[in-house]
Amino acid sequence: MTCDEVRVALSARLDGEDPRLPAAEVDGHAADCAACQDWLGRVERVNRAVRMGPAAEVPDLTAPILAAVAADERRRGAARAAVAQGRRQVLRVAVAVLAIAQLAAALPVLFGVGADVHTGREMASFDVALAVGFAIVAFRPERAQALVPVAFVLAACLAATSAVDIVSSHTALVHELGHLAAVAQAAALWALGRTTERPLSAATAAGRG
Asked: How far apart are CA 145 and CA 191, in angstroms?
């Protein structure tokens, strides 16, 4: 048995591992070999020093990591808010333009004359009222969702009645294209409502608090 084999076995024993050699032979060699005794003494001193030394302090990185995550979330939130704000402004302008267009088309009928003055003025009055509602929503987008059902019902009714009248030859397709504005208004209001948060009611705010 060589010194190297014995030292490997002794090192394994110190580490709590299987020395893979008979203990009696290892101890007998170590007792008779001064070099192995000296080596074993030095190894045992180093082993004790390592085990008795103070454990290295692991720095607590929880706070910096959480701060970095929070900062990243704030940056992402700011970016999302900027995109939503830009989309909201575009939709507000679109709703305002549609309201002005509807008002411009209704006012001449409201104050004009024609073969069916009464019916024309009644329809123009309805268009003016709707245009005012769209204009209010353009300035107060948080109210868009309240007007969405009205806009969709109007668009659906105009589309259905136009289709029936076209099929019955009571009107021409080109005369009904103006009703596409109602569809555009409904779509713009729906999109604006989705980008605008509705204010919380007092009960809801109290429940969340």
From this structure: 9
C-alpha–C-alpha distance, residues 188 and 36, integer Å: 90
Instruction: Report d(CA 150, CA 161) in Å as an integer.
Output: 16
Predicted TM-score (pTM) of the model is 0.47
| Torsion of Cα atoms, 170 then 173 then 178 then 180, to 10° | 120
* 199 close to 142: Cβ distance less than 8 angstroms: yes
Tokens, residue 113: 């004359």
pLDDT tens for 145-175 read: 888 888 888 888 877 877 877 778 766 665 5
Would you list the DSSP string of 58-80? Answer: PP--HHHHHHHHHHHHHHHHHHH
Both structure tokens of 96: 């305002």
